[in-house]
Amino acid sequence: xxxxxxxxxxxxxxxxLRHADDGTVPAVFADIGKxxxxxxxxxxxxxxxxxxxxxxxxxxxxxxxxxxxIDDMAFPGMLHTKILRSEHAHANILSIDVSEAEKMPGVxxxxxxxxxxxxxxxxxxxxxxxxxxxxVRHMGDGVAAVAAETEQQALDALAKIKVEYEPLEPVFxxxxxxxxxxxxxxxxxxxxxxxxxxxxxxxxxxxxxxxxFERRFKTQxxxxxxxxxxxSIALWEPTGDLHxxxxxxxxTLGRADLARTLDLPMNRVRITATIVGGNFGGKNExxxxxxxxxxxxxxxxxxxxxxxxxxxxxxxxxxxxxVMDYTTGVANDGxxxxxxxxxxxDGGAYCSWSETTMGxxxxxxxxxxxxxxxxxxxxxxxxxxxxxxxxxxxxxPQVCFAYESHMDDIARELxxxxxxxxxxxxxxxxxxxxxxxxLHSVVVKESLEIAADKFGWTEAKKNKKRGRGIACMWYxxxxxxxxxxxxxxxxxxxxxxxxxxxxxxxxxxxSLTVLGQIAAEELGIxxxxxxxxSADTDTTPMDTGAIASRxxxxxxxxxxxxxxxAKDILFATAAPMLGVRPEQLEARDRKIQVKNYxxxxxxxxxxxxxxxxxxxxxxxxxxxxxxxxxxxxxETGQGKPFGTYVYATQVAEVEVDEDTGEVEVLRIxxxxxCGTPINPTLVEGQVEGGISMGVGLALYEEMLFDDKGKQLxxxxxxxxxxxxxxxPEVEVHIVENYxxxxxxxxxxxxxxxxxxxxxxxxxxxxxAVGVRITSLPAxxxxxxxxxxxxxxxxxxxxxx
Amino acid sequence: MKPxxxxxxxxxxxxxxxxxxxxxxxxLLAGGTDYLVDLKHTTQVPKIVVDVSSISxxxxxxLTDQGLRIxxxxxxxxxxxxxxxxxxxxxMQEAALxxxxxxxRNLGTLGGNLVxxxxxxxxxxxxxxxxxxxxxxxxxxxxxxxxxxxxxGPRKTALEPDELLxxxxxxxxxxxxxxxxxKFGLRKGQALALVNAAASLDLNAGKMAxxxxxxxAVAPTVIRTRKAENLLEGKAPSDDLFAEAGDxxxxxxxxxxDFRASxxxxxxxxxxxxxxxxxxxxxxxxx
Amino acid sequence: xxxxxxxxxxxxxxxxxxxxxxxxxxxxxxKLTGSKLGCDVGDCGACTVLIDGQSVNSxxxxxxxxxxxxxxxxxxxxxxxxxxxLQAVFEQESSFQCGFCAPGMIISTKALLDKNATPTEYEIxxxxxxxxxxxxxxxxxIQAIMDISGQSDDDRKSA
Lengths: 800, 287, 159
Description:
Chain A is an alpha+beta fold. Chain A is 26% helix and 23% strand.
């Protein structure tokens, strides 16, 4: 099997690093005597910058342990906060008495919901209270907060808060929540949003189809498990302005929410995000911030709040469990002629990101296939469980598990190879999506062929006990229809280096590195020459956030456009200096030069100097970008909900122990489209990481509740996420592609990576032992049970 | 954590005296990898925590006249690195490898694992399958008992409040025999046991002798499945017989339903696990 | 109570409550915030430090248990201009993404390589199984360790 990264590609041999007998060696890349100039690898100095395996600038602080996450920060006089959470899954709050808590040693301030100017928030409906003041709807609801000198003192004080509850009947099952007579979590109905997508005549096509396949699929509630728990610090500046430091992944929205809930003007609210220790969607909205702000105001001191790992499970958002009913009509030759899908999304106690998840899931649920007759009906319902929200994939992993498992069932029933049936039906350039959108830059088939080829799909199995499964997917970039702009500012400094201002937040995916490469490419300089400043609502422009895999595409486009404007100023300055018109110039290799006449050039620094100090025109550009979408028709869902899509295929090889049901995933080969890979190393990293979340979703992870709505495993001991021993070998291939609507042809990659994983593993299990698992996770117990049922169904064979 | 006092006595006698003086207000600390988790979650911390990890009587791995002696404060890593254990009771190293991760094993002790006494403990089954004996120290002196008697119930051992576990001895006659261990968990790394199985036996003239089968996580304590053992005692080994032993062992266990697994599934694991450890124990006995 | 610990080669003392964990002492008292608090119960390994050369979860150790012993934290491995070879290879290969697990992961790697200079891929995975990472799938971390221990991709396959 080919190594996934050619060792020769790494530009520096590693011989020089192996000094096991010496405690330290000089920093890797050149002699230390160069003084203060930071030493960076050669590849960071290459032009052009796009496509280079640039070493991330935040790598060094990470390996030194110097990256400052919120919990590493401290301010003089800072207090610590703990939140008291509900004892019931559904109850009215009759009274909250904090008087005893206030007297406890070290306690400086307390807070309850009624003290918050606007207590509810939410990205679609403002139905979620920061601190519940009249009703609790799941056990993670915060009811009161305490700020004290130490964390232990805050915890001791929580024990003294007296809350009187009037328990109400809860509802936990989403299908039950649909029924008329079920307990109501909010208002008159538990169904709070729904969507329909219709194309062609699905009932007629099903009636006429040669074969009709039906199956129900279910997925479980899982958690993001960022290694860094949610954390924030709030303090009030001497000017009376609020400054919040936060692990939020979306600070523009965060500021809006803070301003709204605290009834403050936006220019008096500042949010600074640092490097975030993992987001995956869970840090997309405020949690503690307004609470800390009010405590800080009362206490007259900075206040820090950090989620415990248990808080992460019980009170931050999770992934929507889906119940999906698929009905597919197929012709004898394997052409899919009709597909009907019904999806019920478990929304948990609050709406949070359900509209988006349900909507996106619905659009994607048909699969990346040309199907003329389609009907999708999706709805989201409230239940008294942890609220579900934004999580990597927004419904796509759930529906992909369903449609790709379903596809394999169809293939096997009709005796068609699973790869062939997909190639037959998959989107191609110009295909029409279920919402009637004409697709461009489509590479589903290429991803199928590459993944299958690199896997060895057509080779005979070396070991008959092994199974192989394939799954492909499509995934959109950016928000569903809604505007999700990013703005950017690019400044060329007088020495030809550049500073980029962006409101996006680095949550680990390497976005700042990629954005720097885009700016560098446009300006003809190297990645090393660009500094990307991010994530402060006072000093960086708005950005819709690290969400929906949009950063490379949307923020990247904004940065490219801003860089182009700065470059235009440089061209306008350089043109008379070189005696040509601006249109005759290009920026490359750190020079502004005449196209086709490299000898007629000026260094970019000289031009920038001239622009700023002689012409009085600093080379500065600002721009914003928003993907082009067209609203979806409310009756049929037809429209152009996204600017672009990416495509991918993953192939898994597994071995199943029939006696125990244990599934071992041996390897996964992935072929992913991201348009132009701005930084192939970072693309690989996203795929490798996404696959680990996919493996978790497939086999191990599940949040479990007892019959009172209390989580049974809100910790990393019993919430089973993959360790290094549980991960298969992963091989990543980037599918060559170019999207003209993206910056230098780039699209995005963050979420698609975990979308097909569960499906290809389930298909591999089916190939290995002939059992179809229709609900995730495929625990060993579940697989074992399915194997026993398989054996009971078989006619008994006479032992030889 | 709420505040408490800490003391690290140098000898077993000192430790016993502290326990006698403080009674239930004193709790023992060896590695702390289980106990500190408790301390962080409890509303009632002890008055004093007694760190026994450096008491010399509780340390060291030796081959004595009695057998292979392992101090109660020996860490799982030390067991894995020990040449003596590798030579005389390698299945103990296989079991130790399944405990948590490296970080846990560097601090966690054999004694701690046995005294915490959760049914899913990983070091118990092999020791039970090798007829291990423990030494306990109290105000009056030392006493010995079979490990099976040391385990009384979930989180309950035969230790009185003023007693400490000194060491664990695998008797001479059980050293070097064919022994195997298998753990079933929900994932490979850092797994808690759903079912543990250990088996050991000698082979005399083609017949199995002194067969021992121990199961963990399927009863209030680690248990020997004596009916399954009796099925095999004195017989020639075969795969079918081992499978039957697995079925019998399943009838002697009382696994529970919990959120990790159902009792039914645990029975399946007992059947599969018992058979596998017997097959492997046999292979090793034949070497 | 008084505890004295040699941290990264320097003797340091503090007067703390016995219930103080080693992690708490390092982060709160001595501002060595490189070791992280991820779960507080020894599941995630973000708090991993070396004590007398062995990796431990410092959140599950009382400061008192480290009294008189030698502790090495991530801060002790290198600084900006002098990276430890491990830090250099992880940096160059962009092995880490959000970086939160990095200090613990690097300490665990050092503990492994100090004991076993040419680990197989399985041995690497085993040694890192106490350090959880949600971003990377562990792939580039393991690749970097294979590279620095002088092992090619072929060595991986044959292991």
